[in-house]
Design a protein that fits this description.
The protein has 234 residues and is mainly alpha-helical. The chain is 81% helix and 5% strand. It has 8 helices and 2 strands, in the order ββαααααααα. α1 crosses α5 and α5 packs parallel to α7.
């Protein structure tokens, strides 16, 4: 199915479902993390230092995820964009710089809130909630451009095989401990088809002990019924 325009926002897209989607799984995980940390900032007790510190630590963790994801894009995706869609490459690079600066501000507020004076705790936590909401909105728009414009452009230019090569390069560059951290928030955000596809690829390429470790991680982060359904598929 082809979708050529989004009438709700008046934006034109060149969008078809792609054979190899570099963004699907990690973007689902990032969306879940952004929603979770934003909700946490809004619902914790602003007068409890432990709560404020937990939210600040979560903000730092999300920041690390965003930084690593942007680094992988800059290293592996940007060269293809520069060659085949330079205007898109410029747009994405600009977005990354703007979003990085904006999240730095979010992180600064979160850290200030941890040891804030009593009179400032409630105000800073609400400000953090608002800034996280605003950042999430901007980041979601950026993700849509990558998913609905960049990914189809890449696959059109270099084909599914070329896109798969980029995917393999990205995954191969991720250390095992970082991969485990990523899977911990990605797997719960994915549907069973996504999980089956991802873990089938791992089962085929990873040593048995490594795959068993991944399955152990999956069992710890998924609901029991979801893990049972996944194991049956595999």
């Amino acid at each position: 199915m082809s979708i050529t325009a989004d009438s709700a926002v008046g934006t034109t897209y060149d969008f078809d479902l792609v054979a190899v989607d570099l963004y699907r799984d990690i973007h689902k995980g990032i969306r879940a993390e952004l929603f979770d940390v934003t909700l946490a900032a809004g619902r914790v007790d602003p007068g409890c230092r432990a709560d404020r510190a937990a939210v600040a630590a979560h903000v730092l963790s999300v920041g690390e995820v965003l930084e690593l994801h942007a680094h992988h894009e800059d290293l592996h995706v940007e060269p293809a964009l520069l060659e085949h869609a330079p205007s898109l490459a410029e747009q994405i690079a600009t977005d990354h710089h703007v979003l990085e600066a904006r999240f730095d501000f979010v992180t600064e507020i979160a850290q200030l809130a941890v040891d804030a004076a009593v009179a400032d705790q409630r105000r800073l936590m609400h400000l953090l909630y608002l800034e996280l909401s605003g950042f999430a909105s901007a980041y979601l728009s950026h993700q849509l451009v990558e998913e609905r414009v960049v990914m189809p452009a890449i696959e059109h230019a270099i084909g599914p095989e070329g896109a798969l090569g980029i995917h393999i390069a990205i995954v191969s560059a991720i250390p095992p401990d970082v991969m485990a951290q990523s899977l911990a928030f990605m797997l719960p955000a994915m549907n069973i088809d996504n999980r089956t596809e991802l873990l089938t690829g791992m089962k085929m390429s990873a040593p048995p002990e490594a795959f068993n470790a991944v399955m152990g991680l999956a069992s710890s982060v998924l609901e029991p019924s979801d893990f049972t359904a996944l194991a049956a598929r595999l």
